[in-house]
Write a structure and sequence with these properties.
The chain is an alpha/beta fold and 241 residues long. It has 2 domains: 2-180, Ribonuclease H-like superfamily/Ribonuclease H (Nucleotidyltransferase, domain 5, 2-Layer Sandwich); 205-235. The protein contains 11 helices and 5 strands. Strands 3-2-1-4-5 form a 5-stranded mixed β-sheet. The longest helix has 17 residues, at 205-221. The radius of gyration is 32 Å and the shape is elongated.
Length: 241
Amino acid sequence: MRQVILDTETTGLSARHGDRIIEIGCIELDNRRFSGQNFHCYVNPQRPVEAGALAVHGITDDFLADKPLFEAVADAFLAFVAGAQIIIHNAAFDVEFLDEELRRLGRGRFSEHVGGVHDTLLQARELHPGRKNSLDALCERYQIDNRLRTLHGALLDATLLAEVYLAMTRGQDSLAIELDSPASVRIAARSEPRLIPLRVLAATEDELAAHEALLAGIARESRGQCVWLEAAPDRAPSGAE
């Protein structure tokens, strides 16, 4: 199963009122493993970044001035996410921005290009009702190192979210493997193990004598409180008190 963990950064909080995407970060998972294939780009939003958003991600207007427009990266982005299950934290926010960007280009809705969208925020609220379920809170809960996240960044946040998602869903794949395993494999696993005869080596006379001498020393040092001798008093060595 191909999955893409996706995050965006924007100029502000309202796509409906003209805020735009300025960064896209995607991490690919192939059968719940990092494939090493990522997609990342900055986008010139053709409008200023709001002060509140700047405080969150630190991406300035000057930095974005020479970056490509969304229309220039749209084909590569859609090719990367095509047909995949998309995993987003607070998906409604990112999908709304993506829908607006695609609408401007006449490219339909984001959901038309992918295999589905999974919201980890909704999943976390079901798993941890009444608790904080921000990305930072989930990283702390699942012991994922997020010390580098001093500011939000689409690629960094997508990487952390991938780790969180795998932690939240750990164990589901093992159940699927058990259900999908062939009957012949399950029957073989239940068959009796092959018995291998054990070779028993008896102690030599010298080894027995050395053992008795060791017990005698323990008995002297412990004033007769030697548990081995208590368990087998008929074998008390000479010199024991």
